[in-house]
Design brief:
This protein is an alpha/beta fold. Helix content is 46%, strand content 19%.
């Protein structure tokens, strides 16, 4: 089916182009287009150029009414008729269809939006436009990298969260590699994804931000990592550091598991098995008491009585609850008293794992108590970003290139893109609807 259409020119909506012929080829619209320019001057001498033939370019464009669209662009070649002019021939240049491209500019922009705004993978977005993965990745980089590099993206940040995230699992060729993610806690945006996890990695990033930016940070949440703390203390003079309840209680839960495994092996001589009391109760031991029913608590105590002859596992469970009560305190002074009770319990229990736990908590005493001085600041938004980052990684079937990984995370989780919302055509739903 071949036909000319002036309406197709308006439908395509590309300024400076006209559609001469439209053809439906295997379910796709093929539009034969050319520019509307009929007068072009030589860029060197200004003489009116004359035609010198055409070169066809076949490029993908935005779909029309759900149909994939291909533009067949008859690119004009021009020649300067002035013999003395140094310029001989040239091809016309248009913004939407650059030379040697396979997809129009507005289609590349739409492809980038499908990845950054809608969360599609590069491969899925590339398939939508019938282009290769590398072409789609370059399109995403074209419209994402300038925004990432814009220094204004980091303006107005007053509180940050810092945490590590596993990037690549260990293989025969390399060890497990990690990244450091920095988040804006107030706006819930990923500020950057740094390669590595150390004091130097975070410190160099903060140095690049400058003294003025660092002086404006008043709150920083982190996990109990000495390297991160050293970098934050060195570069953020006005920030209050906070270790939230998630990471502190995680240390206590680790201590419970360590005690349970040791007692299990000492009493039964093997690792936990399905019928062993401590192994059966392993999940309940890590659960907060307020979330357990009375029957479940009684069952847990029976398991401890059967598998914990010296009460060491029970002491570890109680230490975990005492540490949780520190974070549940009503104010800073109340938290200090509950932290003293925690230390006293760990000392009286005389369990090696609890002594180690108490020493770790003591090293982070100020950061833990700051939880109550900062309105219960939490690293929860950083953990949420980890979950979303893992979703992006699964959707992409994994990453091996840190540059692509960083671009995808910041493009999806770190930038507030300007989008036109879809509005309802009715204010209210009709009561009687078929």
């Amino acid at each position: 089916m071949i036909q000319g259409s002036q309406g197709a020119t308006a439908l395509v909506g590309m300024a400076g182009f006209v559609v001469g012929v439209q053809e439906l080829v295997e379910g796709e619209w093929w539009l034969y287009v050319e520019t509307s320019a009929d007068f072009v001057g030589c860029s060197a001498c200004g003489t009116r150029a004359v035609g010198h033939g055409r070169v066809r370019s076949v490029v993908r464009d935005l779909p029309i009414s759900g149909r994939a669209t291909v533009l067949v662009f008859a690119r004009r070649r021009w020649r300067c008729p002035e013999p003395a002019c140094a310029v001989t021939t040239w091809s016309e240049q248009v913004d939407q269809i650059s030379a040697r491209v396979s997809i129009t500019k507005r289609a590349r922009q739409r492809l980038a939006a499908m990845v950054n705004v809608e969360g599609m993978s590069i491969a899925a977005a590339a398939a939508e436009f019938g282009v290769g993965w590398h072409t789609a990745n370059r399109a995403v980089a074209e419209f994402t990298d300038p925004v990432i590099k814009d220094p204004g993206r980091l303006d107005g940040v007053a509180s940050i969260g810092v945490d590590e995230k596993r990037f690549l699992n260990a293989t025969a060729d390399h060890r497990t590699t990690f990244t450091t993610q920095v988040l804006d806690l107030d706006r819930h945006r990923v500020l950057d994804v740094l390669e590595g996890r150390s004091r130097d990695v975070l410190g160099d990033w903060l140095t690049d931000r400058g003294d003025t930016w660092c002086a404006g940070i008043t709150l920083a949440t982190l996990d109990p990592a000495a390297g991160y703390r050293a970098a934050l203390v060195e570069h953020l003079p006005n920030a209050t550091l906070v270790v939230d309840h998630f990471h502190a209680v995680k240390l206590a839960n680790t201590a419970i598991d360590d005690v349970r495994r040791r007692v299990q092996h000492a009493t039964l001589g093997h690792r936990g098995r399905k019928g062993d009391p401590l192994y059966r109760a392993r999940r309940v031991l890590l659960t907060g008491f307020e979330r357990l029913t009375e029957e479940r608590i009684t069952w847990m105590l029976d398991m401890l009585a059967a598998g914990d002859p010296d009460g060491e596992v029970g002491a570890a469970v109680l230490a975990k609850e005492l540490l949780r009560e520190v974070y549940a305190a009503v104010d800073h002074a109340h938290a200090q008293r509950r932290l003293t009770a925690f230390f006293q319990h760990c000392a009286d229990a005389d369990v090696a794992e609890l002594v180690r736990l108490a020493r770790t908590i003591d090293r982070w005493r100020d950061e833990i108590l700051s939880y109550h001085r900062t309105g219960r600041a939490s690293n929860g938004r950083v953990e949420n970003a980890h979950m979303l980052a893992e979703k992006i990684r699964r959707n992409a079937h994994g990453f091996t290139n840190h540059t692509n990984y960083r671009r995808r995370l910041i493009g999806r989780l770190g930038i507030q893109w300007t989008t036109v919302p879809t509005r309802r055509i009715r204010g209210r739903q009709p009561h009687l609807i078929a």
